[in-house]
């Protein structure tokens, strides 16, 4: 694993219920990738290979549009170490959830 990302997908829709429904579809897609992930209250962290993660980021937006969002904003944070590893999700959060 040489990268991790945090993504917040913000579908531009009329109701809170629609936001939740569409974001749930995006999270279901992330789960289906088989990558290690962590859903937080404002963003989802995912770890894996850099190129694979960039594809996931792109697909998250496409999933939101397919689910009915006419417009999507996404905020993405990327940690990338091409010659080594990055801190894992577990290393970052486990001590705070015991």
UniProtKB/TrEMBL annotation:
Coiled-coil spans in chain: none
Residue span, Thiamine-binding protein domain: 5-96
SUPFAM superfamilies: MTH1187/YkoF-like (SSF89957)
UniProt xrefs under Gene3D superfamilies: 3.30.70.930
GO cellular component: cytosol
Source species, domain of life: Bacteria
Pfam families linked: Thiamine_BP
Family: Belongs to the UPF0045 family.
Protein name: Uncharacterized conserved protein YqgV, UPF0045/DUF77 family
Species of origin: Anaerocolumna aminovalerica
């Amino acid at each position: 694993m040489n990268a991790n990302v945090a993504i917040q997908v913000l579908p531009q829709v009329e109701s809170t219920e629609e936001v939740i429904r569409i974001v749930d579809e995006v999270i279901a897609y992330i789960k289906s990738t088989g990558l290690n992930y962590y859903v937080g209250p404002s963003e989802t962290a995912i770890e894996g290979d850099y190129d694979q993660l960039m594809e996931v980021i792109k697909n998250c937006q496409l999933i939101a549009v397919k689910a009915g969002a006419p417009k999507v904003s996404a905020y993405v944070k990327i940690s990338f170490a091409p010659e080594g590893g990055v801190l894992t999700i577990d290393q970052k959060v486990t001590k705070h959830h015991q």
